[in-house]
Amino acid sequence: MKKSFVERPPSLGATHTDHSEYQKAKNIELIKDRQRHLGNSILFYHDPVQLVRGEGVWLFDESGRAYLDCYNNVPSVGHCNPRVVKALADQARQLNTHTRYLHKSVVEYAKKLSGLMPRNLDVCMFVCTGTEANELAMRIARAVTGHKGAIVMEYSYHGNSTLISEMSTFDSCPNTRPAHVIAVEPPNTYRGPFRANESSLGEKYANLVDDAIAELDARGQKTAAFMCDAIFDSQGGLEAPHDYFQLVYEKVRAAGGLCIADEVQPGLGRTGNMWGFQNYDVVPDIVTLGKPMGNGHPVAAVVTTPEIAESFAASNIYFNTFGGNPVSAEVGMAVLDIIVDDALVENAKSTGAHLRKGLEELASRHPIIGNVRGLGLYQAIELVLDHDTKEPAVSVARQLPDAMKEEGILIGLAGRVGNVLKIRPPLVFSKENANQLLAVLDRILP
Amino acid sequence: MKKSFVERPPSLGATHTDHSEYQKAKNIELIKDRQRHLGNSILFYHDPVQLVRGEGVWLFDESGRAYLDCYNNVPSVGHCNPRVVKALADQARQLNTHTRYLHKSVVEYAKKLSGLMPRNLDVCMFVCTGTEANELAMRIARAVTGHKGAIVMEYSYHGNSTLISEMSTFDSCPNTRPAHVIAVEPPNTYRGPFRANESSLGEKYANLVDDAIAELDARGQKTAAFMCDAIFDSQGGLEAPHDYFQLVYEKVRAAGGLCIADEVQPGLGRTGNMWGFQNYDVVPDIVTLGKPMGNGHPVAAVVTTPEIAESFAASNIYFNTFGGNPVSAEVGMAVLDIIVDDALVENAKSTGAHLRKGLEELASRHPIIGNVRGLGLYQAIELVLDHDTKEPAVSVARQLPDAMKEEGILIGLAGRVGNVLKIRPPLVFSKENANQLLAVLDRILP
Lengths: 446, 446
Hints:
Helix content of chain A: 25-40%
Largest sheet of chain A: 7 strands, mixed
Low-confidence stretches of chain A: 1-17
CATH topology of the largest domain in chain A: Aspartate Aminotransferase, domain 2
Oligomer: homodimer
Radius of gyration of chain A: 21 Å
Order of helices and strands of chain A: HEEEHHEHEHEHEHEEEHHHEEHEEEH
CATH architecture of the largest domain in chain A: 3-Layer(aba) Sandwich
């Protein structure tokens, strides 16, 4: 199971790994206690920030200093949203038990959630985390197809269990992966094996899936599923050619596989559409959801068709102790209601467009910005040393999160070599918040 | 991935599987909606109970009828315990974010939790569910040992992910299991391959692990871990011979494997000791926790030694978005505090002993009871048609949960053929509650 790190993934790993570097940090005693009892767990920043309070798009440290949150995609409807907290507390006071007893909330929640999905994605299976959702999706895909293989992107991240970490290729080399996992090159239109200005770029990238299917066949695995997230978060927030997913879905289905949309990050409004896959006019066979579903409460789901759900249930028992309990259901419904009532999908689209325009304006004055891309309130800027060679500006990028934290902005990196600044704030982010971020970026970027 | 069911597991599956049987049920419209949007998910009872409120050991249906909860091990400190609800609501109002920022609560919680563990089990890795805990434990065991194989019990249940469901042997036959999983016969002192009155029973059962280790070696897998829960929940609540775990741990460690105690069910007081493994005077290398940790809030953990944690972290990045967030940490601490302040471990011991005495008294008058066993507030009675042949009284047992529900008692079955009634109430169960249960059992049992 040992993995050799190609590159420390900045979007997933710590700003750094050597804990001796914390020696100059403000909260050194807390850090030492933490290292002793939490082990070498991931901690952001060279001088890690201690947060004590959150409200809307703002986080506050122990000295009362405010930070504009441009990083966190879990508290989508705003940190400590009072409607969510009320739903949580009210139901926790009333009843919290598993779903083997009848309860109205989980049924109502499933109706509401599937009502927001394309036709026939009618069955919800509730779990607690994105990992559990992707695990269940793969169990379903394998049971229903009778195949074992998975096609994922290079440098993907889908979760932390054994199978799903094998399918998370960000920290593995192709030759160390198990036979059932094949990664294809993500459809990068800025850099990659194909020329960006070719009109058939979507087709060229999609054709890589033909090779993956053939290779899984050759290995005796066959294609159970294609799993991909529509914003390509770990790859640095790509915008795929519009026909990419349509072409890939056709190929995967022709090979007898299922198409799984990992909507843990893009789902629930992030991209300016309710679902990330809507940006590409496809309908998946299985949708997995997580992170923002409970605004921080651990709730996640697999949504699929009655036919697929039934085929799985015919030969598999699945039960999740906490999944879909009354508290999770009430919290999940509150989040859906807020997204609709407060028009947060529309806000992701309009504020996202405003932010994008600002980032493009910055790019015209800061040559270190090689590319601006993204959907809705997921925007990414790729930093390069040279516009022709596109050499990644890795060391500049790696200093940015620390530097921006000093300016009161929390932000993170993404991409294979960590030269992409990703902007992924709560969906209640306003145009004024975007302007604050843009002003700091303008001041800090070389 | 298709599994062939040896036997529908009564402890894990529904009372029945044919949804057409619900036709006469009271809440038929809700059941139909549920089937449409939750799929064929597990639902207890032929006339499923709709619960709307919980308090202490009591659950209430929509008509206001009270049920004594003798089944649920998650709400350990009582349904809707006000101290837990307050901790949950107060922290959710304040801040809820991941652990890549510094926060005092998770460090304090880890200190408190590891403070209750044997020496050197000092590092806590927080996750959301027992499945995630067992997944992480296996990832750690494989990474640290360099081996792949797992030794588990026959008819085990450890969780619902791909790897952990492969290690959950309750619904698979030996010849359909992957090469890395070997199940041994659980140390049943009532029935099984060895004679119950032999003094060397612990040794005989433990020796089966020698064969498992040899078989994993022969398959080129080698032993990464032995995983077992100390109450043998799915096997029908066994009491192992006292030397069993000591002997097995020695063998597993000699083979280079790690000993994982799945304390998701026995942990946190259930057995009358804080940890199930304490009943057998062993110290595991890795402890996994779940269910009662948050009294229903999805929090779980892996606890291990600094050496093992460090060895894993050297080659693996692990991060869990919701695991150990401030809300989970505050809820988890509230549960620990209540267990200590309200002396619930002691209550599990004393009320468990009272219940046990009553069950033994029932056994003396109801010949259908073949065996009474269990630890603390996990007690099991095995129903048989004949004390000599020990033929399981399957059909009587299967009618009991429905019949007892009609008498206002919620209870479940366990064991390979479902002839074991398991009594596993919240730890706030009183002697009076035990007497209520005993009176109903006396009335209902043939």
